[in-house]
Design goal:
Blueprint (H helix, E strand, L loop, with lengths): L5 H4 L11 H19 L6 E5 L7 H11 L7 E5 L11 H11 L14 H12 L3 H15 L3 H13 L3 E4 L4 E4 L1 H6 L6 H9 L4 H13 L2 E3 H15 L6 H17 L3 E4 L2 E4 L2 H8 L4 H18 L5 H14 L7 H20 L3 H13 L5 H4 L1 H18 L2 H14 L3 H6 L1
Length: about 425
């Protein structure tokens, strides 16, 4: 769960003790609270900040809740952000917030709106090192076109610079701009379109690299990117038979994105600086091509990953295959992907990531046909049984009842039925 923690405490020297799912969940919460308690102290309090909580799964939120409701944790401040317009009653975050409120935990809510005209002027004057009086004319037009959306505003300024409407003059040693040109510039309807326009001005290989990176998510390790970018890139960009040359081309393409401020590099990770940039890069894929592309990425990772690294990329590879499920027609491929989902789900269960494990098992079940209990009995039994176990850990007891009913109906032995 925390790979970098091994750099501090070392790698495990023994396999974990096998316990049932509920015990594993309780142990994880206990150890997580112990770890926080060891880090946070009155002389060295801890601030834990997490962004985009609207995407958090139930298991992650349960861990957070265990910490913030722990009466022994008095030296930690938890700060989280989420987009309220993207959250409804079906989101795990909604239940989390309700549970926190019921336990009378002190919570301070801060609603962030778009910045005002004066704040926009302050931001721009600070960025271009001019007095607010001198930057007011530029700030007024930028504010009018962006409505004070900070991301929109900063990206709009960068687009003005890229188009030569905003520049640094060596003669005056200050920033200058073409007021009439900016005034007549047509602005996209939203920040995604603006970012997309910015990305398509980059070199083709950089666009391609950003596009593939966006398929993985907000971040990806360099070693993982090379597993599939080499292969997919060879078919879609400049072809070369030299593997090291292809790798260098890919990394150079990503460095351009880093220089443009679209991506940042944290150690061996390439990370989009904002999720809207990832969305813009992903939007470059026509919808009908997304499924096959995800499928190709997943297959490339599985094919090219060294045996000793397979477990490290299993979740990423299977997730990509699942996102391309609708493009799979061959029955043997469906069975293979179902088996991979079973493997990934079991690994997630061992890590007490029950929401993720349930998703893997459910994806595996979706690949089975109506005759699966006759043709693939063991695989069907394991997928359904593991899915029921994961749903039980999440607390979805109605779903557990429905799944176990299916197992009992098709069980070939009394023991298989009793295990359900």
């Amino acid at each position: 769960i925390f790979p970098r923690l091994c750099q501090v405490i070392g790698s495990p020297v023994a396999d974990p003790v096998q316990v049932d799912s509920q015990q594993a969940q309780n142990r994880l919460k206990y150890l997580f609270k112990m770890m926080i308690g060891a880090i946070a102290s009155p002389s060295s309090p801890l601030v834990l900040f997490l962004d985009d909580l609207q995407w958090a799964d139930s298991s992650s939120l349960d861990l957070i809740e265990a910490v913030v409701t722990d009466s022994e944790s008095k030296c930690i401040l938890f700060a989280g952000t989420y987009r309220s317009n993207e959250v409804n009653n079906a989101f795990p975050l909604t239940r989390f917030l309700a549970d926190i409120a019921e336990k009378h935990i002190s919570v301070i809510k801060i609603e962030l709106e778009n910045i005002g005209r004066e704040a926009a002027n302050d931001l721009i004057s600070d960025a271009i090192c001019k007095a607010t009086l001198d930057s007011k004319m530029l700030a007024d037009i930028v504010y009018r076109k962006t409505s004070g959306n900070v991301l929109f505003l900063t990206q709009f300024l960068q687009s003005l610079y890229a188009e030569g409407l905003f520049w640094f003059s060596l003669d005056t040693e200050s920033w200058e701009w073409d007021y009439q040109g900016i005034e007549t510039k047509t602005i996209p309807k939203n920040v995604i379109n603006l970012l997309t326009e910015r990305i398509v001005r980059l070199p083709v290989l950089t666009q391609h690299a950003l596009n593939l990176l966006s398929c993985i998510g907000c971040a990806c390790a360099e070693s993982t990117l090379i597993l599939f970018m080499n292969e997919i890139g060879q078919n879609n960009t400049e072809k070369t038979n030299d593997i090291s040359e292809r790798e260098n081309n890919i990394l150079l393409a990503l460095e351009i994105a880093v220089a443009e401020g679209l991506v940042k590099k944290e150690g061996s990770l390439y990370v989009f600086v904002h999720d809207q940039i990832q969305s813009a890069a992903y939007s470059l894929n026509p919808e009908h091509q997304r499924g096959p592309l995800h499928l190709q990425i997943g297959n490339s990772i599985l094919k090219n990953a060294p045996i000793d690294e397979m477990e490290n990329v299993l979740f990423i590879a299977v997730d990509q295959l699942n996102r391309g499920i609708l493009s799979v027609n061959r029955e043997d491929l469906k069975e293979t992907i179902a088996q991979l989902n079973l493997r990934a789900g079991k690994k997630a269960m061992a890590l007490a990531a029950f929401q993720s494990s349930a998703s893997f098992f459910e994806a595996g079940i979706s690949l089975l046909d109506e005759y699966c209990w006759d043709k693939m009995y063991e695989l069907s039994l394991q997928l359904y049984g593991s899915y029921a176990d994961a749903q039980f850990c999440i607390g979805h007891f109605d779903e557990v009842g429905q799944v176990t009913a299916v197992i009992i109906k098709h069980a070939k032995t009394l023991w298989d039925g009793l295990n359900a």
